[in-house]
Amino acid sequence: MDLVLIVEILGLALLALVVLVIVMVTVRRSRLARSGAVSVSWRFDVSRAGHGWVLGQGRFDGPNLLLYRSFSPLPMPARRLSRERLTLGERRCPAGTEADLLPVGSVIITCTDGGTPFELAVSEQVSTGVLSWLESLPPSSPAHRRGSLRRRD
After folding, report:
1. SS3 of residue 50 by DSSP
2. Using CA atoms, how far apart are residues 1 and 77, in angstroms rounded to an integer?
3. What is the SS3 assignment for 152?
4. CB neighbours of 93 closer than 8 A, spacing ≥ 6?
5. Which tens digits make up the pLDDT trace of 11-21?
6. Does 44 have pLDDT greater than 90?
7. How would you class 78 by CB atoms within 10 Å of its CB: exposed for 0-12, middle for 13-18, buried for 19 or more?
8. CA-CA to 18 of 20 to 30 Å: which in 57, 128, 140, 144?
9. In the structure, how many helices (H) and strands (E) does the chain have?
10. pTM above 0.85, yes or no
């Protein structure tokens, strides 16, 4: 085979792969939007200020908040936060370069998931939704009896 033909075939295969990934990401994001997903960013490495933010969508699914990466073709969530283990903490405005990385009007909420600290960046409306979702935990649940669903201020 001619070297030029091999390069052309490899180039076309690479182009087809890129187009396939773009289509998969677009279809996934569209399905999430139709299912009521909200824009949310998160970071689990809170040791470095302003670094490690992941852009994505969050979808409430019963007792879980499912976090999906924006630019991943995978259909499964990147993180699953349990309502029983999630505690909301202080709120703050984006600082430094975070204002450039996060959506306009984001508020950052310091949280813990079973003792693991992380941060969520959401709009004011989504922040209210997350708090309502947390407070809707049934009174008979262990987390409700422990009082762990209250905000730490």
Report:
1. coil
2. 44
3. coil
4. 107, 108
5. 999 999 999 88
6. no
7. middle
8. 57
9. 4, 7
10. no
The angle formed by the CA atoms of residues 23, 31 and 75, to the nearest 5 degrees, is 70
Helix (H) or strand (E) holding 141: none
Collapse the DSSP code of 135 into the 3-class scheme (helix H, G, I; strand E, B; otherwise coil) and give the result.
helix
Question: What does the alpha-carbon distance between residue 122 and residue 84 come to, in Å, rounded to a whole number?
Answer: 20
Contact (Cβ atoms closer than 8 angstroms) between residue 79 and residue 42: yes
Domains and CATH numbers, the chain: 35-146 (2.30.29.30)
Closest CA to 94 of 45, 57, 153, 53: 53
Q: How far is CA 137 from CA 19, 109, 140, 146, in A?
A: 42, 19, 8, 12
Handedness of CA 107, 92, 45, 133 (dihedral sign): negative
